[in-house]
Design brief:
It is a single chain. The protein has 339 residues and is an alpha+beta fold. The chain has one domain (5-337): D-amino Acid Aminotransferase, Chain A, domain 1 (2-Layer Sandwich). Helix content is 34%, strand content 24%. It contains 9 helices and 15 strands. It has helices spanning 44-61, 109-116, 138-141, 181-188, 193-213, 256-265, 267-283, 301-319, 329-337, and strands spanning 5-11, 19-25, 68-73, 76-78, 89-94, 102-103, 106-107, 119-121, 124-132, 159-170, 178-179, 217-228, 231-235, 245-248, 251-252. Strands 8, 9, 10, 11, 12, 13, 14 and 15 form an 8-stranded antiparallel β-sheet that branches. A 5-stranded antiparallel β-sheet has the order 1-2-5-3-4, covered by helices on one side. α1 packs parallel to α8 (301-319).
């Protein structure tokens, strides 16, 4: 179980076959890698399920393999168009996820792949970026000229990249870190890092085009993939307001809204997280949360309402269907803009 969705196994994967199971999307949310926060956002889970399903169906139609089998409605597996109520379950193929042994912050990927064989979840996140907002970690890892931008220094505003940038980060380490291409190729195991980049670029293109049709701007996102029978398949969930960042008329429409709200209203907690992560690195401690001295506080009711409308109205626009009973996208944007 992750912090925002539950994982159900129906038929486990074996060394030479995929299993079957489902994601059950909850209304919980997580920011700053904290895990489950004190509040729930009503209908958030169903909106993520619907957006993820729409993206998987579009990827499959374009010949990009995924682990998606359909959404679950009334106990039956169907395409998204085949359900009348917002779905909360997504049927998926399952691969194997071995334990990743570690001693403090040292992780044994050789052991992971020895246990995984040729049917496994690739222990990487593949990140794609179309813009570089203020505060992006990309700014600390390179100069604008390295990404095709004609700036001497990073400007104090979000900038669009001339070409998408693809990066790799760890998936199962307690504190994720960005990787060199050589290290990413090692961690990927049998899967080829060039093929992973190609898949990520195709997913980015598809999500960007879908967002544009809905009047949204797709800024960045990530994918996870499995490797089976010599093939890379897109896994987890793709192109939602939690996995990706979108905007509408300059206003963020993603989990970033909640991140920024916490930065403004609970700075002591955000600062404590930063300090805990730094201390964990210094002391070679894997789980930084045990070092964090401050806990997050619940959200005001009007913030929860605005977040609910952001997720549901945004999902309606993205999938091109009034699946959720909610305000218009313009009204939802106005509500989060005023937080």
């Amino acid at each position: 179980m992750t912090s925002v969705k539950q994982f159900r196994v129906e038929e486990p994967a074996t060394a030479d076959s995929l299993g079957t199971g489902a994601f059950v999307f909850t209304d919980d949310y997580s920011v700053f890698d904290w895990g489950k926060m004190p509040d729930a956002i009503p209908n958030k889970g169903a909106s993520l399920c619907a957006m993820g399903a729409a993206n998987f169906e579009r990827l499959e139609a374009e010949g990009i393999p995924t682990h998606y089998r359909g959404v679950v409605g009334n106990g039956e597996i169907a395409d998204l168009d085949g359900v009348v109520a917002p779905p909360r379950e997504m049927a998926i193929d399952l691969t194997r996820v071995p334990e990743l042994p570690n001693e403090a912050r040292e992780y044994d990927y050789n052991a992971y792949h020895e246990a995984a064989g040729d049917n496994y979840l690739i222990p990487l996140e593949i990140v794609f970026r179309n813009t570089v907002p203020i505060g992006s970690s990309l700014r600390s890892r390179g100069e604008p000229s390295e990404f095709g931008l004609e700036y001497d220094a990073w400007p104090d505003e979000s900038v669009d990249l001339p070409e998408p940038v693809v990066e790799f980060s760890t998936k199962y380490e307690e504190s994720d870190r960005y990787l060199s291409r050589k290290n990413a190729d090692f961690i990927a195991g049998t899967a080829d890092v060039d093929d992973l980049e190609s898949v990520a670029r195709e997913v980015n293109r598809t999500v960007t085009e879908t967002a544009s049709e809905a009047g949204l701007k797709h800024e960045d996102g990530k994918i996870e993939c499995l490797y089976f029978d010599g093939e890379i398949r897109v896994a987890d969930v793709v192109g939602t307001f939690d996995e990706n960042r979108f905007s509408y008329d300059g206003q963020q429409l993603s989990k970033e809204v909640l991140r920024q709200y916490h930065k403004r209203t609970q700075p002591e907690w955000v600062e404590a997280i930063t300090e805990a992560k730094a201390r964990a690195k210094t002391e070679d401690v894997a789980d930084w949360r045990e070092l964090c001295a401050v806990d997050p506080q619940p959200l005001p009711e009007h913030v929860i309402d605005a977040a609910r409308e952001m997720y549901t109205a945004g999902a309606n626009a993205y999938i091109g269907r009034e699946l959720f009973s909610t305000r218009s996208l313009e009204d939802a944007v106005g509500a989060v803009r005023n937080l």
